[in-house]
Design brief:
heterodimer; A: 250 residues; B: 254 residues; alpha/beta; 8 helices
Chain lengths: 250, 254
């Protein structure tokens, strides 16, 4: 007996990093997973790995029409939507208050914040009246602590945390049976973080900021998402789960 | 294949409520469990329900020497200690003005000292065994203030910060050694259907209702629902989680 037997789940940002790890773990636990990503080659590759349990959908999370199209296709093909992970996210190389470009600021807000809002909005529409579901938004330790080198990123992730809580309240008050929670990772060894830690000295310095003295693995975040996706977490909504090797506690 | 196969756990407050639910769940997932509690009769009942995977040790969590004995008894019975759940706790209401010093100290002795002593006693055993996960029961009352639960919120807020300080130190100690650090995390339940709250609400059902009114899920959680999270925190699945806080409260603090 697997933990997500026949659940229908969409993972944005599923082509790489945490999203791909979620897609793989969910499929291994019996779910039918739609890998949604703007990266068609990477997304198709991950979906291909999953065999019959996986499929790819092209998705620019900043584009509302594309969210509608992807989620409508899922509900029409499978009859329902049980889960959504909003894992698509970006960071910028220069993200200091004084020097971050408006273009980078906009890109981060569109993808990290608008993209999560749109995913929630349309997943709720797809889930309500069909038995409910679980929405998991990837926030960050940088949604909990500030960092002068990541101003826009921190801002976007702080928005994701509160968006998650307000969405959770709304769904609960409306009686939809839809739960909405955030997961806040520390620095995880993913393609998004790879650019940031390319320099071995920088990587070492970042590792040291985590009391566990290393970067996390995408699978370690997927394990948390798995719990939030199952019925074991039926009493959990509006919460933010920190998996950060101790980063934000010290 | 259980999620805690071969693991050894010690659970304070394991005779009832959340502690007992965690004990049952741990045993189902392949762990062996030492149930430590001041209530011998209820503890024995939980042990007989679980069977050979469980044993009982009488523990007053406010007594440091008894903690050392409980850890030793666990190692003697099962060979090791991998998981500590500090679930023993009490609640009563009162404001900053009308809480007596005696009551305040009783709250701190059980909820705060008890958790501190547990962490202190467990860590050397966990270091000997090579794996360690400590789960401290805090509360949503450790995240938000409440005028009528003055002492309780103070104790649970302290447990939360104790957890982070303990975790940071354990992680630092493990650096440069080829060992996985002992992890320490706090858990923050909302209003859970347990004997502790049954007693608290006895004769004033309207208080229970007022706590739940207007909250997102609008119901009490079950001890089993908390045990599901404790299971995750105890297992290898949570090996990157330390110094963190996990909220299971039906949306109460959102």
């Amino acid at each position: 007996m697997t933990r997500l037997e026949d659940k229908v789940i969409v993972v944005s940002g599923g082509a790489s990093g945490i999203g791909a790890a979620c897609a793989r773990l969910f499929a291994a636990e019996g779910a039918r997973v739609t890998v949604a990503d703007i990266d068609a080659d990477g997304g198709a590759a991950v979906a291909g790995e999953l065999g019959d349990s996986g499929r790819f959908a092209a998705l620019d999370v900043a584009d509302e029409d594309q969210w509608v199209e992807v989620l409508d296709a899922v509900t029409s093909d499978f009859g329902r939507l049980d889960g959504l992970v909003n894992a698509a996210g970006v960071a910028a190389k220069d993200d200091r208050l004084a020097t971050v470009s408006t273009a980078d600021w906009d890109r981060i807000m569109r993808i990290n914040l608008d993209g999560t809002f749109l995913g929630c909005k349309h997943a709720v529409r797809a889930m309500k009246g069909r038995g409910g579901g679980s929405i998991i938004n990837l926030a960050s330790v940088y949604g909990r602590v500030g960092d002068g080198d990541s101003v826009a990123y921190c801002t976007s992730k702080g928005g994701v945390r509160l968006l998650t809580m307000s969405a959770a309240r709304h769904c609960a008050e409306a009686g939809y049976g839809i739960r909405c929670n955030a997961v806040s990772p520390g620095f995880i060894d993913t393609p998004m973080v790879a650019g940031y830690v390319a320099d071995p000295e920088v990587r070492r310095a970042i590792e040291k900021r985590h009391p566990l003295d290393r970067l996390g693995r995408a699978e370690e975040i997927a394990a948390m998402a798995l719990y939030l996706m199952t019925d074991e977490s039926a009493f959990v909504t509006g919460s933010d789960f920190v998996i950060d090797g101790g980063y934000s506690a010290v | 294949m259980g999620r805690l196969d071969g693991k050894i756990a010690l659970i304070s407050g394991g005779a009832s409520g959340i502690g007992a639910a965690a004990a049952r769940r741990f045993a189902i997932e392949g762990a062996r469990v030492m149930i430590a509690d001041i209530d011998e009769a209820s503890g024995a009942a939980v042990v007989s329900e679980i069977g050979v995977a469980a044993a009982f040790h009488r523990l007053d969590v406010t007594d440091r020497d008894q903690w050392a004995a409980a850890v030793a008894a666990t190692e003697q019975a099962f060979g090791r200690l991998d998981i500590l759940v500090n679930a023993a706790g009490i609640v009563f209401d009162g404001t900053v003005e009308n809480t007596s010093l005696v009551d305040w100290r009783r709250m701190m002795a059980i909820n705060l000292d008890g958790t501190f002593f547990g962490c202190q006693a467990a860590v050397p055993a966990m270091n000997r065994g090579g794996y360690g996960s400590i789960i401290n029961l805090s509360s949503v009352a450790g995240l938000q203030g409440s005028s009528d639960l003055f002492a309780y919120t103070a104790s649970k807020g302290a447990v939360r910060q104790l957890t982070k300080a303990v975790a940071e130190g354990l992680a630092r100690d493990a650096k440069g050694r080829s060992v996985e650090p002992v992890r320490c995390n706090s858990l923050h339940p909302g209003v859970i259907d347990t004997p502790m709250l049954d007693n608290f609400f006895e004769g004033r059902e309207e208080l229970r209702q007022s706590w739940l009114a207007g909250k997102p899920l609008g119901r009490m959680g079950t001890a089993d629902e908390i045990a599901g999270m404790i299971l995750f925190m105890a297992s290898d699945e949570a090996r990157f989680a330390t110094a963190a806080e996990f909220i299971i409260d039906g949306g109460m603090t959102a």
